[in-house]
Write a structure and sequence with these properties.
By secondary structure, the protein is of the alpha+beta class. Helix content is 36%, strand content 24%. Helix 1 runs antiparallel to helix 2, helix 2 crosses helix 5 and helix 5 crosses helix 7. Its main location: virion.
């Protein structure tokens, strides 16, 4: 976890601890502590940004390196060998250097598992493009098996808790928790692209960069689309799909025929999300929703969207973080003649878990599909995960679907 993220979590805890303080010296001490943490966050983000810039420079330097003539196998650029293996021009001697990454593919075709070095290159590309990564908003659990179950409590403890007991009296029985199992099935998400003759004739570094960019963009797009729009049938569950097909989240969804007021948002946080007392609730919306929030002002003309150095977005709304999701993932909802904009209020990390197999594989062929007839090389990317809505965490989310105009 990034240091800045840890500090932001600490800041939330300290702010929560100020509730109920009445003594001036205690309040001043907490304000001083909050300001100190905020300053540390700014410094941490500066350091992390410098590290990212250095990583980007290193990535560019490596990709500009082009070796000519015969080179010893021990010194040959690993990335070049990977690219040559994908397009089928690597020698047997070269393939030996990455034999630990070779995997068995579909119908006997060979494939190459993405190693740490290439994963880092993909991450650098994603950071350079500042691509949206939904994994920052949800809970991600690494799994080593394709199938599994996770238990969850289906009933809630009694509000009264322990009962008062007289001396020598009998202790009363408490409620007995009941459990159910939630199953996950890690599925493959794959796609292929034909490499043109012009690209295949290009230098190996350009081919490698093309593959990294293609994988990097489609990986994050797949995650984001499935989390919000997945069907739940032979795919991950989608948060917005569940609100439309009568899934569990339908009980936590409210349609508004008018734009939500400040009072409505306050009621959602104060009443509908009363179970969240740790300050982790956020508002997740798309560009239409963000634009609406950005236009809300009080009677003095002061925007409700306030700058915040501790927020990833740079702003907070009613003290909550704003997560803006591209509209191609978090779409507006069509309800008859109305277009409804989603505002997902609550803690997405509690309501949604991605079970990530952490295994990306690249396969290629010159003889399958239309590759043989058109003399092209087809490259396929394949990675595996599942996504589930946690039934026991429904009280940690409230979805408003609002007609803004």
């Amino acid at each position: 976890m990034l240091k800045s993220t840890e500090l932001q979590t600490k800041l939330v805890e300290v702010r929560a601890s100020t509730e109920g303080l009445t003594k001036a010296d205690e309040i001043k001490a907490k304000i001083s502590e909050i300001e100190n943490i905020q300053a540390q966050i700014v410094l941490a983000e500066m350091e992390e940004n410098e590290e990212r810039i250095e990583a980007e420079k290193e990535f560019k330097i490596q990709n500009k390196t082009k070796k000519e003539g015969k080179v010893d196998m021990e010194n040959k650029n690993f990335r070049e060998i990977f690219a040559k293996a994908v397009i089928g021009t690597a020698t047997q001697e070269e393939l030996k250097t990455i034999s630990n990454l070779m995997v068995e593919g579909e119908k006997g075709k060979g494939g190459i598992a993405i190693g740490d070095d290439i994963s880092k290159d993909i991450k650098v590309f994603q950071d350079q493009r500042r691509m949206f990564d939904v994994r920052n908003l949800i809970n991600v659990e690494k799994v080593g098996t394709l199938k599994g179950t996770r238990p969850y409590v289906t009933n809630q403890p009694e509000a009264s808790g322990f009962a008062s007991v007289d001396e020598n009296g009998d202790v009363q029985a408490l409620y007995e928790p009941t459990f159910d199992d939630m199953s996950y099935v890690v599925r493959s998400y794959a796609g292929f692209i034909p490499l043109t003759k012009e690209l295949l004739e290009d230098d190996v570094t350009s081919i490698y960069n093309f593959i990294v960019e293609w994988l990097g963009e489609n990986e994050l797009n797949t995650y984001a689309y499935q989390v919000f729009q997945g069907t739940g049938t032979k795919s991950a569950q989608g948060i917005m799909t569940e609100t439309k097909v009568g899934g569990a989240l339908i009980t936590r969804t409210e349609k508004l025929t008018v734009a939500p007021t400040i009072k409505k948002f306050k009621t959602v946080f104060n009443v509908d999300l009363e179970a969240l007392i740790n300050g982790t609730e956020t508002i997740t919306t798309n560009s239409d929703g963000y634009d609406y929030l950005d236009g809300l002002e009080d009677k003095n003309g002061t925007p409700y969207l306030q700058p915040s150095v501790t927020s990833a977005s740079g702003f907070r709304f009613l003290g909550r973080e704003i997560n803006t999701v591209p509209k191609k993932f978090l779409k507006n909802v069509t309800d008859g003649a109305d277009t409804l904009v989603p505002f997902i209020c609550g803690d997405l990390k509690q309501i949604y878990t991605m079970y990530d197999r952490r295994q990306m594989v690249v396969e290629s062929t010159k003889i399958g599909g239309e590759a043989w007839r058109k003399r092209k090389t087809e490259v396929m990317g394949d990675f595996r995960f599942d996504g589930k809505i946690i039934p026991s965490a429904l009280e940690s989310i409230k979805i408003l679907l609002a007609k803004l105009a």
